[in-house]
Amino acid sequence: MTDTTDQLRDAFERTEYPVDSVGENRGLTQVHLRTDDPHGDELQAIAEDAIGDALLGVDVSVEEVGDEVGTVVSVRHR
After folding, report:
1. Phi first, then psi: what are they for 36, rounded to 5°?
2. What is the 3-class SS of 10-39, one letter each residue?
3. Could you read off the pLDDT of 4-27 as tens digits, one per residue?
4. What is the C-alpha R_g of the chain?
């Protein structure tokens, strides 16, 4: 794990979002949350607070795997 992945995981866990996994590839970190009711503005604010000026963009999407629904927060950063 990198500092960015650790910072994002900690930030989401502190706000009581259940984190399933965190992965990073080429400046894009994806945080998989076990919630089917995402609040995009709130999730973006959490990412901004976690990594500050390194943040380039945030995308929030809902994914369905089998019969489970989760949220993926994709964070583009420097």
Report:
1. -105, 10
2. HHHHHCCCCEEEEEEECCEEEEEECCCCCC
3. 999 999 999 999 999 999 999 998
4. 11
- Find out whether 29 and 77 touch, Cβ atoms under 8 Å: yes
Residue ranges covered by each domain of the chain: 1-25+44-56
Give the three-class secondary structure for 67. Answer: coil
Q: What's the CA gap between 10 and 30, in Å, rounded? A: 14
Phi, then psi, of 35 in degrees rounded to 5: -150, 140
Max Cα-Cα span within the chain: 37
CA 47/CA 3 separation, integer angstroms: 13
Question: Is residue 52 classed as helix, strand or coil in its secondary structure?
Answer: helix
